[in-house]
Structures are given as structure tokens and as C-alpha cells.
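Hallway conversation turned thread

IA: we were arguing at lunch whether anyone had actually written out Probable chemoreceptor glutamine deamidase CheD end to end. Turns out nobody had. So, for the record, here is the sequence (167 residues) and right after it the C-alpha cells. Reply here if something looks off.
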Amino acid sequence: MPYSHAAQAGPCELLLQPGDYFVGGGGCRVRTLLGSCVSIVLWDPLRRIGAMSHFLLARRPAGCRQPSARYADDALALMATRLGALGVDLRRCEARIFGGADMFGRPPRAGLPRIGLENGECARQLLSERGIAVHGEHLFGSAYRVIVFEPGSGAVWLRHGGAGLVH
């Protein structure tokens, strides 16, 4: 389910659930909790507009025709469309990538997918293909992450698996 935000009186707080994305501007704070899922955060410093996703899997399965922000390729395309409608040039955006943890802490076995790794690598590839510069990432490992994004300022905060807040 996409969220968008128009100017309003007072601060706005949104919690992105898996498969959600947000596009909007100032006065809002967007938060999500990630394990093996990944969040792509885009910010246009000129327009002071941003976007944030919370996707579960790298690619939409073959045979699934409906675009969904549950998948990295669709989430980025949906955010790009909404940002474009607001006059944002994606190549001007600063990107950050978070998540992709191995939440089960077991050694990889042949034939089993490594969903967190696939999600993180896919995010990197998709941003590269669109010419969007990655200005920071906090990927992989084995602990959850809480991400908080303020699209008006571009500020992003991270809490990683019980560690302190990182700015």
C-alpha cells in the first residue's frame, strides 16, 4: 500500500509495513523495521522530497502480473513514477540502502535462497541501472534494523539489533 503526504499542520508519523512504500515531503517522519527485507531510501536535496520502500523479495515471480511494492524491482518503479509526478529527477536523488539480514543465523546451504543477500544485491543493481548514486548503506549481518527517515531534511536514523542509534 503506497503512502503519500501533503503539507499539513503538525508532524506526521508513518509506519511502513512490509510491501509498503512512501513518497512525500517535509513535516513527516517514516519508520520501518527490517530483517531480511530491504529498504531503499531516495532523497532529492533540491526539491526536499523523498521516498522509502520496504520490500520482501528481490523480483516479482514469473506469472505474477500485478506490480507490487513487495518486490524490489516493482517498489523502485512505483517510487520512481510517484517521484517523477512530483518533478523529481531520479538521477539527482541520493540513495541509501538498509536491511538484508540473515535472520536465522545458520550457515548457507547449497540450493537454499539467501533472501537478505539477494534483496541487498538486487537493490544495489537496480539503483546502478537507473544511475542513482548510493550515498550510504547498512546491509547484511544477522540483526534487525529500525530505520527512521525525514524526507524534508533527508535525515535517516538507524537502530541496529540492540545497538545505539546511528545517524
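OS: looked through it. The radius of gyration is 15 Å.
IA: good, adding that to the notes. The chain has a mean pLDDT of 87.
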